[in-house]
Design brief:
The complex is a heterodimer of chains A (444) and B (226). With 444 residues, chain A is of the alpha+beta class. Chain A has 13 helices and 16 strands. In chain A, the strands form two sheets. In chain A, strands 7, 8, 9, 10, 11, 12, 13, 14, 15 and 16 form a ten-stranded mixed sheet that branches. In chain A, strands 1, 2, 3, 4, 5 and 6 form a six-stranded mixed sheet that branches. The longest helix of chain A is centred in the middle third of the chain and has 21 residues. Chain B folds into two domains: 114 residues, Response regulator (Rossmann fold); 94 residues, Arc Repressor Mutant, subunit A, CATH 1.10.10.10. In chain B, the strands form three sheets. A five-stranded parallel sheet of chain B has the order 2-1-3-4-5, with helices on both faces. In chain B, helix 5 packs across helix 6 and helix 5 packs across helix 7. The radius of gyration of chain B is 19 Å and the shape is elongated. The chains are: A alpha+beta (444), B alpha/beta (226). Chains A and B meet through helix 1, strand 5 and strand 10 of A and helix 5 and helix 7 of B.
Chain lengths: 444, 226
């Protein structure tokens, strides 16, 4: 047995861990967990834990519904919120078939496969997401009440939400997830936590962990935290702007001191690849019906397929670097929302960017002021600027024709995702909303 | 008596002759894989690793042994005088060493000695610095008496740093000494783990590990300040 596993077994014993929670993620990005006792842990390492996956979203197959969960010892962490005497720990799992092959329905395996492919070309992919979310008094849709009335960067020292955010950060940091910034966002009760960049697999695990910690910490105080992209119609929604960087050996391959904006040829093609495939990957980066209520013109969320250095409504930003840190050139992709599956989202961002690099795509001109114009006006101007899908249905249409997305996700997840999301769209479309009743009932 | 693992394959002729004359059974291996495949049913009786022309492979094998990927104790190095600087900061990788070219009687004496000691007892069980305590036997770390929960690599990194307080290490050194040569993730990995460690040490103790601009990292106080 390798030292990592030995270390975990020893720590479980020394720290009196009562349960080890084995975590994995379904195709939609919901965290799943089952607990094993310390006595079973050695067996879990040696042979994996077998379970019936057919009831998990996106795992269902007609035959051989059993899969093996293999705990990844490198992800072992003690959970910081358990009371004394009831210590538990968690590990993320990789899922395999009973024959030991990576399970095609496991998003973590999908990201591993994409990262391995990039590593084959010598690249390692680092990401840093900025995660926004809301606190509400309850999860009851009829009583959607924000807890504070703060706004961007407000220093609301004495309120409940500041304390919640502070406790949340203590918890995630004690689990080895460094936080770069945290602050009050634009909308009432909206907060943001920015994580320090790390390799994409660790970061996807970190995002899953952070979402749980935010909700658990809030729930302790009887507060509901939500990553729903657009809970309040009249305020900005929650995004997950994601900073991307690509390294070869120690070198940031997006950086070239002799090029405009310090952005290398690889960096330019990477951005161009993201622009080329942006519409196709949107169903995954923005997977809810509600996601598209955030991506509207006139907000800070992107609605056009554009890049800019500073314009906050562009899909992609190449932020200016600080003096002395010129080699920290990176790319910020701004459409994803925090309700996405981070494993699949990071997989597609990498695949789309690298496809641009492979093709040697040229970077189109930087967007400037036409971003804020309405769609119709833009069409009239014939600027040639594409628009992001306007609804989940449009996004699914774009995804369905994409060889890149099919290849990056694998047939199993690609097809299941389309089926599942078409059905979600159908459920939505057949609703008669308060908007329609108030607008049409009287006049028609 | 279980056979000794000998690196490289074939071993230097004078070493083979000495072992044969002294009646030690032995098998030569060329890397970690053959050390695993060739392992006798009752395990290896010990290891003699010659750090010579293929010193990287020699250190990789020693590291694999110390990580228990291949279970062998004790471990004796045979190393040329021009390579002695390679021993620095690798104390944990061997139990004793003998200068190459060796005197047959010295090598035998050292072999006897490491066997007698059983390869244990050479390292202290606790590493302490200020309020930080690392228990090398139980893998546990605590600061001001409160346990810190670390992953294996975080623990190994902190252990290495705490064993060399005041010394500045480059990322490359940390990578090769803590992760080993087989690691291909690059120096970024070191930065990521340093940040994770600082996060876990908490605000109060995060400055135990300081960044030395454009060089690397240092644990604890500099040797040149109080």
């Amino acid at each position: 047995m390798d030292r990592q596993k030995e270390y975990v077994l020893r720590t479980v014993e020394e720290r009196g861990v009562r349960f080890v929670r084995l975590w994995f993620t379904d195709v939609l990005g919901q965290l799943k967990s089952f607990a094993v006792s310390p006595a079973e842990l050695e067996g879990a390492f040696e042979e994996g834990m077998q379970f019936d996956g057919s009831a998990i979203d996106g795992f269902s197959r007609i035959q051989e519904s059993d899969v093996l969960a293999r705990p990844d010892a490198a992800t072992f962490e003690i959970l910081p919120w358990d009371p004394k005497g009831e210590t538990s720990a968690r590990m993320f799992c990789d899922l395999t078939t009973l024959a030991g092959e990576p399970f095609a329905g496991d998003p973590r395996q999908v990201l591993r496969r994409n990262l391995d492919a990039a590593r084959g070309d010598g690249y390692s992919f680092f990401v840093a997401p900025e995660i926004e979310y809301f606190y509400f008094r309850s999860a009851d849709p009829d009583r959607l009440e924000p807890i504070d009335q703060g706004s961007y960067f407000d220093l609301t020292t004495d309120d409940v939400t500041t304390g919640l955010r502070r406790r949340t950060i203590q918890h995630v940091e004690s689990m080895g997830i460094p936080v770069e910034y945290s602050f009050h966002e634009d909308s009432p009760s909206q907060h943001e936590i920015d994580l320090r960049h790390t390799d994409a697999l660790t970061m996807a695990d970190n995002v899953m962990t952070l979402r749980l910690v935010v909700r658990e910490t809030a729930a302790e105080q009887g507060v509901h935290a939500t990553f729903m992209p657009k809970p309040l119609a009249d305020f900005q929604g929650s995004g997950m702007h994601t900073h991307l960087s690509l390294f070869k050996d120690e070198h940031n391959v997006f950086h070239d001191p002799d090029e405009p904006y310090l952005l290398s040829a690889i960096g330019r093609s990477f951005v161009a690849g993201l622009l080329r495939h942006a519409a196709e990957i949107t169903a995954v980066t923005n997977q809810l019906v509600n996601s598209y209520k955030r991506l509207v013109v006139g907000t800070e969320a992107p609605s056009t397929i554009t890049w800019a250095r500073n314009h906050r409504a562009a899909l992609i930003r190449v932020p200016e670097t600080r003096t002395g840190r010129e080699d920290s050139v990176r790319i910020e992709y701004r459409s994803p929302d925090p309700a996405c599956n981070p494993y699949l989202t990071f997989s597609l961002l990498l695949a789309a960017g690298l496809d641009g690099v492979r093709r040697g795509d040229e970077l189109p001109d930087e967007a400037t002021d036409y971003l804020e114009l309405s769609r119709r006006e833009r069409a009239a101007l014939e600027t040639g600027v594409g628009s992001l899908p306007q609804s989940l249905a449009e996004a699914l249409d774009a995804m369905e024709g994409s060889d890149l997305v099919r290849e990056a996700l694998g047939d199993h997840i690609f097809e299941w995702f389309l089926r599942n999301k078409r059905s979600e769209w159908f459920d939505y479309k057949t609703q008669v909303t308060p908007f329609e009743l108030s607008r049409y009932l009287r006049n028609w | 008596m279980e056979p000794l693992l000998v690196f490289p394959d074939p071993p230097p002729a004078d070493l083979a002759r000495l072992l044969d004359l002294a009646g030690h059974p032995w098998k030569a291996v060329d890397d970690e894989k053959s050390a695993l495949n060739e392992a006798p049913d009752d395990g290896w009786g010990g290891a003699i690793i010659v750090v010579g022309e293929r010193s990287e492979a020699a250190w990789a094998l020693a590291r694999a042994i110390r990580k228990n990927d291949v279970v062998v104790e004790p471990l004796l190095l045979v190393i040329g005088g021009n390579r002695l600087d390679e021993l620095e900061l690798r104390d944990e990788l061997y139990d004793d060493f003998c200068l190459d070219p060796f005197h047959p009687r010295e090598l035998e004496a050292r072999l006897r000695h490491v066997f007698w000691r059983g390869g244990t007892g050479a390292t202290p069980d606790l590493v302490e610095y200020g309020g930080l305590v690392l228990n090398l036997e139980t893998y546990q770390a605590a600061i001001d008496g409160a346990p810190i929960d670390l992953t294996y690599m975080e623990y190994e990194l902190l252990k290495f740093l705490a064993q060399h307080p005041g010394k500045v290490f480059t990322r490359e050194t940390l990578l090769s000494r803590v992760w080993g040569y087989e690691y291909y993730g690059g120096a970024r990995t070191v930065d990521v783990h340093i940040r994770r460690l600082r996060a876990k040490l908490g605000e109060e103790h995060a400055n135990l590990i300081s960044t030395v601009r454009s060089v690397g990292y240092r644990f604890g106080q500099s040797r040149w300040t109080a």
